[in-house]
Amino acid sequence: MPLAIQGIDEAVLLWIQEAVRQAWLDPVVKAFTTLGNAGILWIVLSVAMLFWRPTRKAGLLAGCALIFSLLFTNLGLKLIFTRPRPYTVVEGLIPLLTSGDPNSFPSGHTCAAFSAGLVWARTLPKPWMRRTAVIQAVLMGLSRLYVGVHYPSDVLGGALVGTVCAMLALYIGRIWQRRQEHNLQ
Predict the structure, then answer these.
(1) Both ends of the chain: CA-CA distance in Å?
(2) What pLDDT band is residue 3 in, cutting at 50, 70 and 90?
(3) CA 140 → CA 56, 118, 120, 159, distances in Å?
(4) 3-state DSSP call for residue 84?
(5) Does residue 171 have a pLDDT over 70?
């Protein structure tokens, strides 16, 4: 990363550690962010949505977006950028969690959260569901900063890649729907 971005990233993480972290909040954020390990939160929710007709499309397209997320982030960009985790670089940063993956950019948790969350925001039947989908995505990204396993630019990168994955899945869904409608005529 360019030095200016690296400096801002480090300053933000140290500020979060000093000004935002609270002893009572630490276990809550750690538990929430851990739900994102291996995409489990979004996979389970997407599969559950397949069993209820009004959410079936949301579950299917979110699953598609999650596959794109895995391919682009974990099997692509992380291997290209190989940015080390902040807790291995930033002097004075005390992580609340660590990761078995040494590569930090982009945030896979954030990417998966935005991939599924933005698909759900466009396809779920109730407004409260759509709002909750976006809120969980933002909170997942913030949780990665809070526990000290990602830089802010990692989270922004993950959100951007996740948005692209969601848009791609929604685009494929529209093509599929048009073909189905055309075949019925």
Answers:
(1) 53
(2) confident
(3) 24, 13, 15, 10
(4) strand
(5) yes
